[in-house]
Structures are given as C-alpha cells and as structure tokens.
Design goal:
The protein is elongated, with a radius of gyration of 18 Å. It contains 3 helices and no strands. The longest helix is centred in the C-terminal third of the chain and has 12 residues. It is an all-alpha fold and 64 residues long.
C-alpha cells in the first residue's frame, strides 16, 4: 500500500478497513502531478445536471 494511503487509514486514530479495489482507486489521487481534471467526470456531471436542473429536477424551481 502506498505510504500516503497508509496514513489515510489512520487519519482519525482508528484503522479503517480498505479493500484492494478502494486502495487502487485512491492511489489515482496520490500520484505525483495529479490534477482532478485528469479524471473524466463528464458522465457524472451530465447525470447530476439532469437530476438537479432537468425538466423535473430537484432545483429547477430555484433557478431564475
């Protein structure tokens, strides 16, 4: 396990169980030179735009 991830496991004083899959996913964020734009989030953005601002979106009535 990467050193940064090892430290994250004990962030609040208690060990937190982490599955190997979760460790692999978190490792993406600790890589040298990482920037959030490196991860494609277009599908996620579209999903939430529809949920919040679509025809029956949760926030449609709050948008001017």
């Amino acid at each position: 396990m990467l050193p940064k991830l090892r430290r994250m496991r004990f962030r609040f004083g208690e060990p937190v169980p982490m599955s190997p899959k979760l460790v692999r996913e978190l490792a993406k964020f600790t890589r040298l030179g990482f920037h959030p734009d490196d991860i494609d989030t277009e599908d996620l953005v579209q999903e939430w735009q529809l949920k919040l601002f679509g025809a029956n979106g949760d926030l449609v009535d709050r948008v001017r």
